[in-house]
TrEMBL record:
Transmembrane feature ranges: none
Protein name as catalogued: Ribbon-helix-helix protein CopG domain-containing protein
Region (Disordered) residue spans: 1-26
InterPro entries listed in its UniProt record: Arc_rbn_hlx_hlx (IPR013321), NikA-like (IPR053842)
Any Pfam family the entry gives: NikA-like
Annotated organism of origin: Hymenobacter ginsengisoli
Lineage: Bacteria, Pseudomonadati, Bacteroidota, Cytophagia, Cytophagales
């Protein structure tokens, strides 16, 4: 035996764990033939919802109907405005608690909220 074989060798570095395993991995693959109309329908739903075509098909198989489309840029802007108006209402409530008269400003803000909600309901219908 040589002296080199008696000295302990440094342990090899272990690799960090990779991506965690999925709870329900999609480990089976099928080929699916669709006609042009069906493919267009799945593709359109995928674009509207932001999901993949595979996710749309899986949802259909699970009995879930995908109804919610991704919000348009115009709808997103309306949602941002609603957040700002809600913040304004909260500030008005705080001012009212300390005795300030904020009734007119609160009514005007609520009217704006109602108008935005009506606009959002029209675009979603």
């Amino acid at each position: 035996m040589s002296v080199d074989s008696l000295t302990p060798q440094p342990a090899k570095k272990q690799r960090a764990p990779g991506r965690p395993k999925a709870e329900a991995p999609h480990d089976a693959t099928i080929q699916l033939r669709l006609d042009k109309r069906q493919l267009d329908q799945v593709t359109e739903q995928a674009q509207q919802t932001g999901l993949s075509r595979s996710a749309i098909i899986r949802a259909a198989l699970d009995g879930v109907r995908v109804l919610q489309a991704a919000p348009t840029p115009e709808q997103r802007e309306h949602y941002r405005q609603l957040v700002k108006l809600a913040t304004n209402l909260n500030q008005l409530v705080v001012q009212a608690r300390v005795g300030q008269d904020v009734q007119d400003r609160a009514r005007a803000t609520l009217a704006q909220v109602q108008q935005l909600l009506a606009t959002l309901n029209q675009t979603q219908a």
